[in-house]
Amino acid sequence: MTATTRRSVDAPDTPLATAPSADCTADSAGGLSFDIALPDVAERWDAALLLRLRNSDPEESVRLPLVPLSDGSDGTVLRATLPSTVPLAEGRWDAYLVFGEEEPRRLLPGCNDLRSLVDRVPRTDRTWLGVRIPYATKYGNLSVRSWLRWPHAEVGEIWPVDGGVTVRGRLYGAELAPDARLEARPRRAKAPTVTGPVTSTDGPGFTARLAYDELAREREAGEEWEVWLRPGADAEPVRVARILDDIADKHRILRYPAQPVAGGAGDEDGELWARPYYTGANDLSVRLERTPAAA
After folding, report:
1. CA distance 283 to 169
2. Among 45-54, 72-81, 186-195, 227-236, which stretch is predicted with the lowest mean pLDDT?
3. Residues 114 and 91 in one domain
């Protein structure tokens, strides 16, 4: 049985040399299993894997019971299962091993089998989409990145050429109307929304383009612009992101070229450039950048 609780957990994030590790396996529906090899714990009925949502207030956690899976020379293998039917709030969940009321111990990442997450296609009859990707933190501990969305606009390809960016993707949980469009919104200011046309559709698939010069005209509103897809004039916008794969943090891995923006050169701050990028939440955005005039 899976239980959701709110409690205080005081455990360091720094990994210990003796900390146990968990092997993670993902299924195509979005569920995760955690296998932990531990000696001499076959009789412990109170073993659990604790997932704690980072920076949540009040603190939110999910406790998953650990049950014996097999016996071998290395001791008992315990398995905890996070079903796809259990929603996790969006964010980063830190993983701990806990016995009863003892102090939780931070888990280390083991071997991950995330092949089923690659090119995952959500069912169209659902009411929410849960995505969970285990990963190693900067301290070397095990955490799970979770998304909870519906509808969802998944990025397939990004082409930053000819003074703009072309986005190809698929929309899940909503239908594309003839007047569908991309929308760019400044991240930290209120300003007019910059729009771009959806140039073609194929069922849930879409191709859309956003011109950089439109962003340059509104650059006083900010340098970071979030990309949204509005399926139709009367529909709510959907954040454009890439989460249906096995990469928890694309911000540091996928980098796209910057292009000079028409009309953005010639001032004392240098030439203006635009670059598409993924945020820490794998959402698609565009950043306006300046380079020194000498460059």
Report:
1. 13
2. 72-81
3. yes
Residue type (1 letter), 223:
E
Domain range enclosing 165 = 152-291
- Whether residues 96 and 173 share a domain: the answer is no
Side-chain-side CA neighbours of 107 within 13 Å: the count stands at 29
Close Cβ partners of 258 (under 8 Å, ≥ 6 residues apart): 160, 273, 274, 275, 289
In the chain, where does DSSP find H-type helix?
212-217
Rg over CA atoms, the chain = 22
Q: What is 242-290 written as a DSSP string?
A: --SSS-S--TTT-----EEPTT--SSTT-EEEEEEEE-TTSBEEEEEEE
What integer is the mean pLDDT of 9-13?
A: 45
Specify the pTM. Answer: 0.86
Measure the CA–CA gap between 104 and 48, rounded to whole angstroms. Answer: 9
C-alpha closest to that of 206 among 175, 230, 232, 171: 171
For the chain, give the number of residues: 295
